[in-house]
Amino acid sequence: MKKLLFAFFICFSVSIFAQDVRIPIDTTVVTQGSVIIKGKRINYNAQTGMQPVFDDNGNTKATLYYTYYYRTDVPNRINRPLIMSFNGGPGSASVWMHIAYTGPKILKIDDEGNPIQPYGIKDNDYSVLDMADIVFINPVNTGYSRPVVKKDEKVDKKYFFGVNADAKYLADWLTTFMTRNNRWLSPKYIIGESYGGTRVMQLSHELQSRQWMYLNGVIMVSPADYKIIRTGGSEDLALNLPYFTATAWYHKMLPKDLQEKDLEQILPEAELFAVNELLPAISKGGFISEDEKNRIAEKMARYSGIKKEIILRQNLEMPPSFFWKELLRDVNGKTIGRLDSRYLGIDRQEVGTRPDYNPELNSWLHSFTPAINYYTQNVLNFKTDVKYNMFGAVHPWSFENENARENLRKAMAQNPYLQVLVQSGYYDGATTYSVAKYTMRKIDPSGKMKDRMSFKGYRSGHMMYLRKEDLKKANEDLRQFIKKSSESIGAAKY
Asked: Are 340 and 396 in the same domain?
């Protein structure tokens, strides 16, 4: 049973109104909890509520919903790491990693991540709360977070909804959080999933260059790199090939000699082919020779499970959306999932070039939505009639002057302590693991900081932690990364 430690306190100005008046601007609720991790009971407080976003003049621009978990048996937090956690979208709440990955409570799902009834939550035996405190932040219009405007004024969307604007106001918010909770001396980490990968790349430099908040680590989970993703360019088309290989292997669609090997034995072959042969071939466009085109198509067929003649009809340029529709078309007529290609879907018609819907996302919303609504109201004791936005209205989202990759490079160059970890699922077709690896290589073209970057792959999809085996492995990888990057390494200099 959770014990309520602090009642709501609400601070507001008579001249300021939240977009939804049922949401308080500044409020805190604290409950007590415990969880057994690695055989040891961990007692913690869960602090949840709303914290304002202030502009440079001290005016309230928004109020963000957050949940902050911290161990209660730690007398001194100077050496206690703090993880600041974001999801992506843009427009996605922090629900996904909160109640399925790193937090002390997770969904009731089966070992492969499928929803089961009755819905709800259970203890997370693998949470990293044993070695790090965690705060989950919901950007504006996600979760219960909302903009705040004066009466009869409109929301300043440009203040919130864009790559640069997003990082700026979140950095302001985090500075306030650090001061309120006395965490300035702690080793600091930011973790972001999907678009959150872009967010934390951008945020790393924003925190260091404008808030002078230096980090120990940046963690990107299934990161979206908008220099590549959905551009339709040669890199985008070629670098997805290893993901095709992984998915075809899972569905037993590869040639016998490849199918008999372990997944992680064949992926390096596919990666080398994608970079050394397929990328140059696609870049030649219509000027490629017929001999080379046929040779590349034959190899693509071998590593993707898609027939050579179909690849040739697409001039070697096979988008993932077509792959999701085509791979099992002649086997059972089912489609495969975008975010996790282990999932199957049923379309109205077997013909076509893309699936009707994303079966994996429907499955996840099936289990996450009732769980987070129950958890916030009944366990965290945050009471409200306001809708919890799993996905909120944040569009149009500005990608103008998006330079997140370069900004992470600058942050690493300016901070010798800063290390980077990338985690990806092999069956993620939205932000493929092979593109994530490519992003790592492009962050630091000089190669002088590559020893501070590491990659971990998992046999699951976009939210690789939904699979029990990978939940355990991914959290352990986080522990090792935090341990390595928070140890005393001497002066911060080259």
From this structure: no
